[in-house]
Write a structure and sequence with these properties.
The chain is 6% helix and 41% strand. By secondary structure, the protein is mainly β.
C-alpha cells in the first residue's frame, strides 16, 4: 500500500516576517500581563513596561500601565522574554527568563520602591506556568519536546501526547505503533466530540481538506516538521472565534531571526528492521504473509535568517517523504 504525498504550503514553505503591531492576541502568539504597585501596596499608573526578546523582530515591545496599575502586552511570539518596569522617582525592576508559549498569557507583577533612577533591581524567578488570564485548556508541544519524544509527529501521535484526545480515521492503514505507518491523515476527538468538529490551523489559517461534512473530519495535508516551532492543541474553553467545539490544532511556524540558522533531518526504515510472527500454524490457516513495512523515508531541511536585521527575516523549509507497507494475507508478488 502506498500513501500518496499531497503538495501544499507545508511541503515547501517560505515565510517572511516584517515588523507589525497587532491590537489583540492572535492564534500564534501569547502575552504578558500584570499589576504594578509601590512599597505600600498602592497601584502605580504611568509605569513604562518593556518586553524584550530575540523572538521579536523589533526587539522590544512597550506599553504603559493604566490608572489601576494594570498592563497587558499582546501578540508576542513564543520565546524567552525579559520585562523591565520604569517610572521616574522609582527604582527600575527587571524580570528575566519569562518563557512564553502560544496562547499563554504570563502573569508578571512588579513592586517598585522609591529610589534613584540609576538603581536597577533584577529579579530572577521561575517562569509563570499557570495562565490566570484565559480559561482555555491546551497542550503545547515545543520543538524540543517534538524532537525528544519517540513519535512519528503525525496527527495520531499528537493525540497520543495529549490527555483525553484520541485519533480517528487513520487513513485506513491501521494503528500507528512507534511511527511504523509514516505520515497519516486522521482526525482528533476529545470529551465525546465528533471528528467533524476538529480544526487544523497553520498559524491561524485553516487547512482542513474540504471533504466529509465540511472539511472537519481529518487533516489530509501534511505539515513539514522542519518548519514547526510549536504545535498547540486546544481541547476546552476554546475562544468564540472558533466555529466548532472539537480539538483545535494550531501549527506555529518558525520565522527566522537576526542570526542565520538551519537544520537537516533524515530518517528511514525498511522491512529489515521489522520482525515477523508468521508461523506454521498461521500458514496452515492460509495466511501467507503478515502486515509489513516496505519502506518509510523522510528527509528535509530548513534555513532562515535576516534579509535586513531588525527589519525583515526569512525562513524556508523543504521535505521529501513517503511510505509503503503490505497488508496481511495479500500477496506482494
Amino acid at each position: 500500500m502506498r500513501l500518496p504525498r499531497m503538495t501544499f504550503l507545508f511541503g515547501v514553505g517560505f515565510s517572511l516576517l516584517a515588523p507589525s503591531v497587532a491590537s489583540a492576541q492572535s492564534t500564534g502568539t501569547g502575552g504578558i500581563a500584570g499589576v504594578i504597585r509601590d512599597a505600600t501596596g498602592a497601584v502605580l499608573p504611568g509605569v513604562t513596561v518593556e518586553a524584550a526578546s530575540p523572538a521579536l523582530i523589533e526587539k522590544v515591545r512597550t506599553v504603559v500601565s493604566d490608572h489601576e496599575g494594570q498592563y497587558k502586552i499582546v501578540d508576542l511570539r513564543p520565546g524567552t522574554y525579559g520585562v523591565t518596569f520604569t517610572l521616574p522617582g522609582f527604582s527600575t525592576v527587571k524580570r528575566e527568563g519569562i518563557e512564553l508559549t502560544t496562547g499563554f498569557t504570563a502573569t508578571v507583577n512588579a513592586d517598585l520602591k522609591v529610589g534613584s533612577i540609576e538603581e536597577t533591581i533584577t529579579v530572577t524567578t521561575a517562569s509563570p506556568v499557570v495562565d490566570i488570564q484565559n480559561v482555555r485548556t491546551q497542550n503545547v508541544l515545543s520543538r524540543d519536546e517534538l524532537d525528544a519524544l519517540p513519535s512519528a509527529k503525525s496527527v495520531p501521535a499528537l493525540g497520543a501526547l495529549t490527555v483525553a484526545v484520541s485519533p480517528t480515521g487513520t487513513g485506513g492503514s491501521g494503528q500507528d505503533v512507534g511511527g511504523n505507518k509514516g505520515e497519516q491523515y486522521a482526525g482528533l476527538v476529545v470529551h465525546g466530540s465528533r471528528q467533524q468538529d476538529g480544526r487544523f490551523l497553520y498559524d491561524g489559517m485553516r487547512f482542513n481538506m474540504t471533504v466529509t461534512d465540511g472539511g472537519g473530519a481529518s487533516k489530509h495535508y501534511f505539515v513539514n516538521q522542519n518548519d514547526v516551532q510549536e504545535i498547540v492543541l486546544e481541547t476546552a474553553g476554546i475562544g468564540a472565534d472558533t466555529d466548532a467545539g472539537g480539538v483545535v490544532v494550531n501549527v506555529v511556524p518558525k520565522t527566522g531571526g537576526n542570526d542565520f540558522r538551519g537544520n537537516v533531518t533524515v530518517t528511514g526504515v525498511n522491512d529489515n528492521f521489522q520482525s515477523s510472527n508468521l508461523n506454521d500454524d498461521l500458514r496452515r490457516r492460509n495466511l501467507t504473509n503478515t502486515a509489513k513495512v516496505k519502506r518509510i523515508y523522510d528527509a528535509g531541511a530548513g534555513y532562515g535568517g535576516p534579509l535586513r536585521k531588525d527589519k525583515l527575516w526569512f525562513y524556508t523549509a523543504h521535505r521529501w517523504w513517503g511510505s509503503q507497507d503490505s497488508r496481511r494475507g495479500v500477496s506482494t508478488t
